[in-house]
């Protein structure tokens, strides 16, 4: 049987990836970095285990197409509306400034104009794969820095497609006619217009025809055919595979089937994009890195500092606090995976000589590897950096002083969904409150609605003083930024240790830490949802309210220790079984039309028919305990019943007329 060289290489790639990714997971390094390390180790500059690198690069091209296809699927008008300001304002300012400063620096250092612009483009892009994964793990996607990061990354991803289109123009010699360049740009615009028209009128019908067959394999193949087919079509017109796959994603994103397409295509995308990162790692010349390590480290540091400063400056310009600006800047400081796509395209057009190519490639990989550590320390950097800035830049907002001094009020930190509902209840009950919110847009809308709200960062003493947190009865933290919450709690307790602090969290693991820094009550969403479900289940089986209340106290006691500890579960289950099988008391309200209306207690004969005893009949305000057997039941009476849970269930069915019990 003939040997298949690529199959052997493919097995080596997969096996090496499994080992490296397993190790990376144990030491909390993102998988993308692991794939890069895999390529470095098995590539031609490492142990040279892989011989068919050209075939790996072919699959890598498909991986890039799949990545851009997934981005196109997320490019919906709804999503753009939700993150409009971070996307358009933040993304455009960050990209423009990075290109100008990065490209300008390269030009000053002696690079040609086209090469300088190319380097600026490479610097602009950050790693969507790494940053979003880390923010998801940290539960900060819905925080202000999370929204900014998502908006800027999405803008960069869209810009990456435009960059790929323009690289041939940058690489063209000076004799290339301007008309051909203009014609190419017009062609791209026409293609995009055609795509949006097709997305609106043709694609929903095509996908419906596929879905109607109810064959999963057909749905998967159809999705892949749309992605790769349009990629080939755009390549045949002289554009890139990546552009076509991105447009294919946009086509499908406007249909109601886009979520299922994402689910079905994700495994293919993950496999091929993994090969893409591995192929990038194969390009790294270890000998060059060893011989030029100081230069590469210097380049890495300059990239991290430049991008962090640009992004943080843009965020400050958008009137966000310093802490949010620093976290966002550091999070987007690395060079992204789509820069490697530009590496590949630029390599074909000769935009970088080998030495500069290896330096920039090595520095880019180093910045990606440094990202997890930088994101971990970013929330604490503003305490250091803020002290260096003159005049408290980014440290203060100037909120209006409340109309009168506040005391024994509620401070609501965060005016999202939970904060909005809490404020509504406080208003209806007449309890005074003041809101602290970090989003200027939310503050503007809430102010117009007549809310007492202060714009500012809850981690700043001057902001908490403005809302009189020291004289508040309760401070409630409804935000999703764990570091900001901890620092805010410490501030409140420094101002007045007697002020009660209630914290909402979606991380069970944070309960002990939040109590340690001073929280009086921590409400974990997941555990509270479990308790609410538990209560409703017991209510369905008509467990006495006092039993339910006792169990709720047990579950919430000792900081939810029962729910968090595996060893306590059998004890709780045993107690529940005892309560469920024990007797209880229940009240049944007799309504007009009930089968029991007009009947006497003797005629109902609940004891013999169901095992339940009627110990009292309440009529109006008068309770009649130990009622006589001839007592007639009237509409509006409340029957107090005693028996086991199973017997009371039978009695309710009989009294409601929903079952005939003999």
List the helices and strands and how they pair.
Elements lengths: L4 H22 L4 H12 L10 H22 L2 H6 L1 H25 L4 H12 L3 H10 L6 H28 L6 H24 L1 H9 L4 H21 L4 H13 L4 H26 L2 H6 L1 H25 L4 H10 L5 H13 L4 H35 L21 E4 L3 H13 L3 E5 L2 H9 L4 E3 L5 H6 L7 E4 L4 H14 L4 E6 L5 H7 L3 E4 H16 L4 H20 L4 H13 L1 E7 L11 H4 L1 H5 L2 E7 L2 E4 L12 E7 H12 L6
Parallel strand pairs: 1-2, 1-4, 2-3, 4-5, 5-6
Antiparallel strand pairs: 7-10, 8-9, 8-10
Helix pairs in contact: 1-2, 2-13, 3-12, 3-13, 5-6, 5-8, 5-15, 6-8, 6-17, 7-8, 8-16, 8-17, 9-12, 11-12, 15-16, 15-18, 16-18, 24-25, 25-26
Task: List the defining traits of the structure above.
662 residues; alpha/beta; Na+/H+ antiporter like fold; Rossmann fold; 29 helices; elongated
3D architecture notes:
By secondary structure, the protein is an alpha/beta fold. It has three domains: 5-171 and 179-386, Na+/H+ antiporter like fold; 410-519, 3-Layer(aba) Sandwich (Rossmann fold); 583-662, Alpha-Beta Plaits. Helices cover 66% and strands 8% of the residues. It has 29 helices and ten strands. The strands form two sheets. Strands 3-2-1-4-5-6 form a six-stranded parallel sheet, sandwiched between helices. A four-stranded antiparallel sheet has the order 7-10-8-9. Strand 4 (474-477), helix 22 (482-495) and strand 5 (500-505) form a beta-alpha-beta unit. Helix 15 (293-317) runs antiparallel to helix 16 (322-331) and helix 15 packs across helix 18 (354-388). The longest helix is centred in the middle third of the chain and has 35 residues, at 354-388. It starts with a helix and ends in a 6-residue tail after the last helix.
